[in-house]
Amino acid sequence: MTWEMDLRIMKKRAHEKGKKEMALEVAEALRKKGMSEAEIAEVTGLPEKKETMK
Prior knowledge:
- Helix content is 70%, strand content 0%.
- It is mainly alpha-helical.
- It has one domain.
- Helix 1 packs antiparallel against helix 2.
- The radius of gyration is 15 Å and the shape is elongated.
């Protein structure tokens, strides 16, 4: 594997991690506003589990 390929993979992983972190932040904000876990899961694409939204 070349250095360029490694770099592309690392960038993609960082991007995916950033998207998940943003979804968690949105989920927490929605939870504080009183939205149900099912609705939050639907909006964010996160699983409907409390421990993933803390």
